[in-house]
Amino acid sequence: MNMPPSMKNRVVIVTGGGSGFGEAMCQEFARQGSRIVVADLNLEAADRVAVAITADGGQAVSCRVDVAQSVDMARLVQTTLDHFGRIDVMVNNAGMSHPNSPMLDVTEEFFDRLYAVNVKSIYLSAVHCVPVFRRQQGGCFINIGSTAAVRPRPGLTWYNGSKGAVLLLTKSMAVELAPDNIRVNAINPAIADTPLLTTFMGKPDTPENRTPFLNSIPLGRLCQSADVANAAVFLSAPASNFITGVCLEVDGGRCI
Predict the structure, then answer these.
(1) Residue 251, class by beta-carbon neighbours within 10 Å (0-12 exposed, 13-18 middle, 19+ buried)?
(2) Which of 100, 130, 170, 229 has its CA 20 to 30 A from that of 10?
(3) Are the CB atoms for 191 and 213 separated by under 8 Å?
(4) pLDDT in tens, 145-171
(5) Ranges of H-type helices in the chain
(6) Where are the domains of the chain?
(7) Largest alpha-carbon pair distance within the chain?
(8) Is 89 within 8 Å of 139 (Cβ atoms)?
(9) Distance between CA atoms of residues 256 and 247, nearest Å
(10) Interval 16-53: pLDDT, tens
(11) What is d(CA 28, CA 33) in angstroms, rounded to the nearest whole number?
(12) 23-32, 118-127, 158-167, 214-223 — which is least confidently predicted?
């Protein structure tokens, strides 16, 4: 396997790494020769991904993490340092949504959890990773946003708002952390063929129910996990070292 030297031996944390976009990113970074920490609330899923990477000749460890808890994020960072000695890339991928429904049907309890997972997690990643990046004199954050923050759909109001926060935080972090050689970028996927698809659709996944979503995407297909993984590798690589504060739409043209 030919591995680009730019990503070989880089240490990458991926939250929500046990499925969907996160799993695909773990696998693609590993194919590029990076060392992976698969972080997920579901430890069994994280273990599965880490074992598969190791079986394929890569280096990976798993860690159970609730990204809304500071103690968990601190443990994740320390686990990474204990195993690999450094952190090069922090991918804030873990997220959740409420089922597609009228905004007033979302309970206060669910709203609080939604913003803790989607927004507070970005704060906690900065609290625990920025000191490490500063000691290393560099590092990279990748935040997974959504086209919902750019062209919101009805029925997902509070989710849309949480991802809007992710995009603005990305830009503000990028400006504030630039003097420390810390880059911060975001990826905005379109609706994707992942376990959250039916949540976003608010209805069963059938060809008929997919049609209006497909019609809204000029390239005529849903986003795939590999599309997001490829974008994450690009934004993490030294070749993109003059790119920061970018919120890259991986959306087949939906936001045009």
Answers:
(1) buried
(2) 170
(3) yes
(4) 999 999 998 899 999 999 999 999 999
(5) 20-31, 43-55, 70-84, 108-115, 121-136, 157-177, 197-201, 207-215, 225-236
(6) 11-250
(7) 53
(8) yes
(9) 14
(10) 999 999 999 999 999 999 999 999 999 999 999 999 99
(11) 9
(12) 214-223
For the whole prediction, is pTM greater than 0.90? yes
CA dihedral 174, 253, 20, 32 (to 10 degrees): -60
Q: Which helix (H) or strand (E) holds 187?
A: strand 182-189
CA gap 34, 89 in Å, rounded: 10
- Has 115 been annotated as catalytic? no
Given the residues 29, 84, 141, 159, select the one marked as catalytic: 159
Residue whose pair of structure tokens reads 């129910």 in the numeric block: 209
Q: Which fold has domain 11-250?
A: Rossmann fold (3.40.50)
H/E segment holding residue 184: strand 182-189
92 and 121 in contact (C-beta within 8 Å)? yes
For residue 38, what are the β-bridge partners? 14, 62
Helix (DSSP H) and strand (DSSP E) numbers for the chain: 9, 7
Distances (CA, A) of 38 to 11, 59, 91, 170, 171: 11, 11, 10, 22, 26
The DSSP letter of residue 153 is P
Tokens of 149: 């923050």
